[in-house]
Recover the amino acids of this structure.
C-alpha cells in the first residue's frame, strides 16, 4: 500500500532521459490491460511515442493548432510544439467505442480506458519513473486523432508523459478521504 499511496504526478520539467526501457514499457502496458473491463471489450488502445517520433507528434500538434486557431502566435505554436518533447516517452491512451455489446454503456468503456491509464501511471511509479497524465486541446482535436491513425470510434483519454526524474520530489499533503465520503445508511 505504501507504493500505491506514494504515487504522485511529476511535472514534465523534472523529467529527463533515460526513457523507460522496452521491458519497462511492456510492464506498464501489461498493467494497463488488467483494468476493469465490462464485457471483455478491451475498450482501450495505446500508442507508444518515444525518441524521434516525438518530433513527428510535435509537428502534428502544431499543424492541428494552426487549423484550430489560424491566428495563433509564433509563441503559441512553439509552446504547442514543445509539448511532446517534455518527457522521453509519451503513451497516448485511447478509448474505443464498439457495438459488440450494446449493453455496456459508453461511460464504462471510457472509465476502463481511464483505469488502464492509471495502471500505467502506477506501473511507471513502481519502476521509479515520473509520470503525469495530461490532455489539453490536442486530446480532443480531430486533426490529432486523424494524424495518430485513430478510427472514428476512438477518443484520446490522455497523453501520459513518462521519464526519469532529475530531482527528489517532496511528498505533498493529501486530501482526507473523509472530506469526500458519504456514509449512507
Amino acid at each position: 500500500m505504501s507504493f500505491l499511496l506514494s504515487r504522485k504526478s511529476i511535472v514534465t520539467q523534472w523529467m529527463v532521459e533515460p526513457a523507460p526501457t522496452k521491458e519497462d514499457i511492456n510492464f506498464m502496458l501489461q498493467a494497463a490491460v488488467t483494468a476493469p473491463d465490462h464485457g471483455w471489450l478491451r475498450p482501450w488502445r495505446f500508442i507508444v511515442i518515444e525518441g524521434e517520433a516525438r518530433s513527428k507528434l510535435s509537428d502534428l500538434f502544431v499543424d492541428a493548432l494552426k487549423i484550430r486557431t489560424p491566428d495563433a502566435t509564433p509563441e503559441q505554436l512553439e509552446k504547442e510544439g514543445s509539448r511532446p518533447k517534455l518527457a522521453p516517452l509519451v503513451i497516448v491512451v485511447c478509448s474505443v467505442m464498439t457495438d459488440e455489446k450494446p449493453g455496456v454503456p459508453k461511460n464504462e468503456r471510457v472509465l476502463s480506458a481511464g483505469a488502464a491509464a492509471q495502471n500505467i501511471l502506477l506501473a511507471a511509479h513502481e519502476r521509479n519513473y515520473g509520470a503525469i497524465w495530461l490532455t489539453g486541446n490536442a486530446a480532443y482535436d480531430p486533426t490529432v486523432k486523424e494524424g495518430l491513425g485513430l478510427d472514428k470510434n476512438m477518443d484520446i483519454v490522455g497523453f501520459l508523459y513518462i521519464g526519469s526524474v532529475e530531482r527528489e520530489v517532496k511528498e505533498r499533503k493529501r486530501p482526507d478521504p473523509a472530506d469526500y465520503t458519504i456514509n449512507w445508511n
About this structure: The two ends are 28 Å apart (CA to CA). Strands lie at 15-16, 44-50, 89-96, 130-134, 154-165. The chain has six helices and five strands. The mean pLDDT is 93.
